[in-house]
C-alpha cells in the first residue's frame, strides 16, 4: 500500500521532552514497515531550529512528518504548532499532536491551529506503542505526504 | 483509544461516484466504532450540509469529512478552503480521498489545510483496506473535537 516508491527514508521529527516516551516512540517506529529516520528534540525552540536549520541543526533534513507534544519546556507545543502552520515554507508538513492532555480546549485549539491530527498519549506503555504504530501505519503507509 | 464512552461518529462523505460511495459505506459498516455515514454528491451540497441549509436543516454536525477533489458544481479544493477558513468548522478533520496522485494536488491540499491526503486505490480490495485504515486511525486512535 506504500504510496510512492521512495528510496530515501521518511524523516520523522519527534518533539518530546519525556525521555521514556521518546524511547517508546522510537521503538515503535523502528519496528515500522517503512524505512524511517527519527530526529528527537526535547524542546520547542530546538524543534524550530531543526526546521530552520539553525546552529547545530544546519544539516538537519526536512521532516516529512512531525510528532509534537504540547507541554514542552521553553516554547510550548501550542506556540510551535502556530509558528509552523503560520510559516508558508513549513505549513504543508503534517503535524500529529501526541500529548497527555485530554482537555477539549486543547483538542479544539490544536485543530484550529491546523494540527493534522490529535492523539492522546495512552498511559500504558503497551497501548502507547500500539498508538505510535497506528500513527506510523496511517501516515507512512496510507497517506500521501507532500 | 480516544473514546471511553460509546459514541456515534458522524462522517460526511463528499463523493460524486456512486460506486466509490457504496464501497466506502461497506468498508465503514464493519468498523469497531459506531458511525453514521452521510453522503453528498457535490461541493455546494457539502457546504449546505455543514451550514444546515435547505433539506439539511436537521442534520448532525460531522466529526470527520472525507472529501473528493474533483466534484461537480463546486470543486473539492474550494470546499476545503472554505471550510478551513471558517472558524465554526475548521476544527473538523478533512481527509482528502481522491484518485489524483499529482504532487501538485498533494501540496496544494496540505497548504489549504487538509488534515491528510489519501489516494484512492483502483483495486477494490485495496480501496476497502484504505477506508478501513482511515476508520481505524481517525475513529479509534485520534481524539476528535467533540464538545
Please write the string of helix (H) and strand (E) elements of chain A.
EHEHEHEHEH
What is the arithmetic mean of pLDDT of chain A? 92
- So, the CATH homologous superfamily of chain B? Response regulator
Tally of distinct domains of chain A: 1
Quantity of strands of chain A, as a count: 5
Describe the structure.
The complex is a heterodimer of chains A (146) and B (147). Chain A is α/β, with parallel strands linked by helices. Chain A has one domain (10-140): Rossmann fold (3-Layer(aba) Sandwich). Chain A contains five helices and five strands; from the N terminus they run E-H-E-H-E-H-E-H-E-H. Chain A has helices at residues 19-30, 44-51, 77-85, 104-112, 125-142; strands at residues 10-15, 36-41, 65-68, 95-99, 117-120. Chain A has a five-stranded parallel β-sheet with strand order 2-1-3-4-5, sandwiched between helices. In chain A, helix 2 packs parallel to helix 3 (77-85). The longest helix of chain A has 18 residues, at 125-142. Chain A is globular. Chain B has 147 residues and is of the alpha/beta class. Chain B has one domain (9-141): Rossmann fold. Chain B is built from five helices and five strands, in the order βαβαβαβαβα. Chain B has helices spanning 18-29, 43-50, 76-84, 103-111, 124-141; strands spanning 9-14, 35-40, 64-67, 94-98, 116-119. Chain B has a five-stranded parallel β-sheet, with helices on both faces. In chain B, helix 1 crosses helix 5 (124-141). The longest helix of chain B is centred in the last third of the chain and has 18 residues, at 124-141. The mean pLDDT of chain B is 93.
Amino acid at each position: 500500500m506504500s504510496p510512492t516508491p521512495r528510496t530515501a527514508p521518511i524523516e520523522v521529527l519527534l518533539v518530546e521532552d519525556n525521555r521514556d516516551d521518546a524511547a517508546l516512540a522510537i521503538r515503535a517506529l523502528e519496528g515500522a514497515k517503512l524505512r524511517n529516520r527519527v530526529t528527537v528534540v526535547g524542546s520547542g525552540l530546538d524543534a524550530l531550529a531543526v526546521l530552520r536549520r539553525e546552529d547545530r541543526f544546519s544539516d538537519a533534513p526536512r521532516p516529512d512528518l512531525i510528532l509534537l507534544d504540547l507541554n514542552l519546556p521553553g516554547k510550548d507545543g501550542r506556540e510551535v504548532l502556530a509558528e509552523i502552520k503560520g510559516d508558508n515554507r513549513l505549513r504543508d508538513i503534517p503535524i500529529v499532536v501526541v500529548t497527555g492532555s485530554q482537555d477539549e480546549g486543547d483538542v479544539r485549539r490544536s485543530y484550529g491551529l491546523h494540527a493534522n491530527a490529535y492523539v492522546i498519549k495512552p498511559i500504558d506503555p503497551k497501548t502507547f506503542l500500539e498508538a505510535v504504530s497506528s500513527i506510523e501505519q496511517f501516515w507512512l503507509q496510507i497517506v500521501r505526504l507532500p | 483509544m480516544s473514546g471511553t464512552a460509546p459514541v456515534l461518529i458522524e462522517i460526511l462523505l463528499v463523493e460524486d461516484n456512486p460506486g466509490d460511495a457504496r464501497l466506502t459505506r461497506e468498508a465503514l459498516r464493519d468498523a469497531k466504532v459506531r458511525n453514521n455515514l452521510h453522503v453528498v454528491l457535490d461541493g455546494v451540497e457539502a457546504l449546505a450540509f455543514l451550514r444546515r441549509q435547505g433539506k439539511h436543516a436537521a442534520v448532525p454536525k460531522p466529526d470527520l469529512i472525507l472529501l473528493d477533489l474533483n466534484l461537480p458544481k463546486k470543486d473539492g479544493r474550494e470546499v476545503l478552503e472554505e471550510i478551513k477558513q471558517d472558524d465554526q468548522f475548521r476544527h473538523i478533520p478533512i481527509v482528502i480521498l481522491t484518485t489524483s496522485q499529482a504532487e501538485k494536488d498533494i501540496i496544494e491540499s496540505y497548504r489549504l489545510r487538509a488534515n491528510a491526503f489519501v489516494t484512492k486505490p483502483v483495486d477494490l480490495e485495496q480501496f476497502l483496506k484504505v477506508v478501513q485504515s482511515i476508520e481505524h486511525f481517525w475513529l479509534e486512535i485520534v481524539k476528535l473535537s467533540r464538545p
